[in-house]
Specification:
- The structure is a single chain.
- By secondary structure, the protein is α/β, with parallel strands linked by helices.
- The protein has 16 helices and five strands.
- It has a five-stranded mixed β-sheet with strand order 1-2-3-4-5, sandwiched between helices.
- Strand 4, helix 16 and strand 5 form a beta-alpha-beta unit.
- The longest helix has 21 residues.
- It is elongated, with a radius of gyration of 24 Å.
- The two termini are 28 Å apart.
- The relative contact order is 0.10.
Length: 400
């Protein structure tokens, strides 16, 4: 069962990655919501999110899909863009939000959440938030939200703006097995994007979605679905590998290294205006990695000397003697980009292959500024360098 789940999640990760790499409509509701999902999961945004965002016109923002897409992105927008977005909200207030034909953004969870996210980001205190909260309350009072996904989207949008008001709304329990797969993925995406606001139990969602993945061929239709399935598959894979009885030490360290950017981001965002832990060089990376390793391994020895190689001595960052493993940590910077990283790692491989009592070398490269243009090539080239050691290279984070 575990091997089947691992195979299915690996295929899902590949399909989701390919879908996000092929997504070109940036920004639109699906790609913008995909970024919100990956942010919620603590995963790096796709490559398309690095492309410039065109300055929206007042006319384009009168289309609610564009209004919602830019709502997800307002946090990093210029003040002038924000002003144009607010003007579009004023235009939206003059429209009938609940038309009889139900052709309205308010029934589309991705759009209603994008608009709520924009209002929440701007913290508009001049009646616009109140208008939107009252609109959503009217929808619940009149039972306009008929599908589980539209009800959930409206509820989370309401909670974004007024948590107390949202908690006073009645939300029917969602019968997950009865949902179509596309709707189940959407409900899961909302839960990942807004984990503290969605009332749907994440364990129930994961269990139902895993059942679908194991028994059906899952189509990945857009960037939002791809981000949801990618985050889901990552979590399942890590959980399957997590139990000690099912994971070897190398896989455990690999998972810890791949998730290192999550730890680093958390340390940079601290509570009560406390000074963040800034990561500026390899020493900072090594200190954090040392702390992580100490949580999982009993004997972690930092800065161990290695034998002479090419006429010089060196130190490895960490030695795990019981596991017969060395760990080397690097951080990219100007002057230490992909080519230089590979050269350094190949020298390290030659040096560490002479260390007795060691079978495995793990190299983690923290690349927050994305100096490594082809991280998979680094991992493959160094891991296949022909040494006696078993080598695992982790470049993180990686653009999907």
């Amino acid at each position: 069962m575990i091997s089947v789940a691992m195979s299915a999640t690996a295929a899902l990760l590949q399909a989701a990655s390919e879908q996000m790499r092929s997504s070109e409509r940036w920004p639109d509701p699906a790609t913008a919501f995909a970024c919100r999902i990956l942010d919620g999961a603590g995963l790096p945004r796709p490559k398309f999110a690095s492309y410039p965002v065109a300055v929206p016109s007042a006319a384009s923002l009168r289309l609610t899909p564009q209004l919602a897409a830019h709502g997800y992105l307002l946090e990093n927008a210029e003040d002038n863009d924000n002003a144009v977005w607010v003007e579009a909200i004023d235009h939206l207030r003059g429209r009938e939000i609940f038309p009889s034909d139900r052709q309205s953004f308010v029934y589309n969870p991705i759009e209603v959440l994008g608009i709520a996210e924009g209002l929440s980001t701007l913290n508009v205190a001049d009646g616009r938030r109140t208008w939107f909260v009252d609109t959503l309350r009217r929808g619940f009072s009149n039972q306009y939200f008929r599908s589980p996904a539209s009800s959930l989207g409206a509820y989370v949008a309401l909670a974004l703006l007024d948590r107390e008001v949202a908690e006073n709304q009645h939300l029917d329990l969602i019968d997950l097995p009865d949902l179509a797969t596309t709707e189940l993925i959407l409900v899961a995406g909302i839960g990942i994007a807004f984990p503290n606001l969605s009332p749907v139990p994440p364990d129930d969602l994961e269990r139902e979605l895993l059942g679908r993945v194991l028994t059906h061929e899952i189509a990945v239709n857009d960037a939002a679905e791809a981000a949801t399935l990618f985050a889901f598959a990552q979590r399942v894979r890590d959980r399957l590998l997590a139990p000690k009885s099912l994971i070897d030490d190398l896989d455990k360290i690999t998972i810890l290294c791949r998730r290192f950017p999550l730890f680093a981001d958390t340390m940079r965002t601290r509570q009560q205006k406390r000074i963040p832990f800034s990561i500026t060089d390899e020493y900072d990376v090594q200190d954090l990695l040392h702390a992580i390793l100490r949580l999982h391994f009993d004997d972690v020895r930092p800065e161990e000397h290695t034998p002479s190689y090419a006429g010089s001595h060196s130190r490895v960052d960490f030695l795990l003697p019981r596991e017969r493993m060395l760990i080397e940590a690097k951080m990219t910077r100007k002057g230490l980009i992909q080519k230089e990283v590979v050269n350094q790692l190949l020298i390290d491989v030659g040096r560490y292959s002479k260390v007795e009592g060691i079978d495995t070398l793990v190299c983690v490269i923290y690349d927050p500024e994305r100096y490594c243009t082809n991280p998979k090539a680094i991992e493959t080239d160094v891991e296949n360098s022909g040494t006696r050691l078993k080598i695992r290279v982790v470049v993180c984070p990686q653009v999907i």
